[in-house]
Amino acid sequence: MQQLYIDKPDELDHLCQRLCGSPWLALDTEFLREKSYYPRLCLLQVANDDLIACIDPLRLPDLEGLLTLLYDSSIVKVLHAARQDLEIFYYLRGAVPQPLFDTQIAAALLGYGDQIGYGALVREMLGVELPKSHSRTDWSLRPLEPEQLRYAADDVRYLRELYREQRRMLRELGRMEWLADDFAQLGDPATYENRAEEAWSRIRGHQQLRGVQLAVLRALAAWREERARQQDRPRKWLLRDDVLLELARRQPRDHQALARVRGLEEGARRRWGSELLALIREARALPEKQWPRSQERIRLTVEQEGMVDALMALVRLAARESRISPASLATRRDLERLVAGEGSGPVMRGWRRQLCGARLEAFLAGRSGLLVESGRLVERPA
Fold this sequence. Notes:
- The structure is a single chain.
- This protein is of the alpha/beta class.
- The chain folds into three domains: 2-192, Nucleotidyltransferase, domain 5, CATH 3.30.420.10; 196-290, DNA polymerase, domain 1 (Orthogonal Bundle), CATH 1.10.150; 302-381, HRDC domain (DNA polymerase, domain 1), CATH 1.10.150.
- The chain is 49% helix and 12% strand.
- It is flat and about 65 Å long.
- The mean pLDDT is 94.
């Protein structure tokens, strides 16, 4: 098996010629974003049946030839836990390569647990223990050592084998087509859009705020998101989440009050104080109907809580029968929303509906029930 390191344009052109026509490509990236808003691509690994290549974007003038190949819709792109890798491509081209196959998503459908890591999956499916010595490597430093390149190459070396084995297992089980909805969502550009006006909802702890406080938080979080993008700096380098929450909670009206906000550093206060105060004033002036609403925990009656418990039991039964993890089918919050009539969630779509959703629907409609027979919980028609 040939392993290549590509850092010259002519080498990249030759590699693309060799990869062209492959039915699938295993793909992975190494990147940094600790000091930036956008992820900085430092290495790109790709493999097919014949070769493995580590491509160095920091040494190449551009990756256009390779990107054209990766966006070829006749080639399946195989990744593991693909979302962060695909986000890089979204920022490069405003879209992600398709079609896709994510071995982490497929693993859940094959009984290997929900959100299993690459190393654990390689160990469980292939019996190979991968080294962890370079998991915290600074991939922007050059030159790359041979050990680093071997470590990076392993990320696609075994990805190929996982893909072959998972594809075989899925076809034997008749589940290959079940993954279409999950992979379609993974390829949807909307998945990677960090809309500034929705940034407030991604801040941990926002559920503690109410009313106009959320309007203030939305304005401050949107401002931080746009500023971080413009300056290509991490959000927390501008203002930390806890500072945004405190500003939204206290809503200072002048510089004196702003100075008393815990965690707001003097430099940030001098630099952005007037902007922050103006944003707070504008948000406070909004009519109540324009305030955002936090997704509060669903309040259920005692009877509804019992129904959720019963549905959870059905989910576990379906998961046991199909040899997959219950979390792959539905979470308790999904079931709470279902019982409260606030949406059906993923369990009522695609393969999850086939395995479990239709059974939940039948139970809620009174067409089936749960019984204990010989010490085991079983489902029976009503």
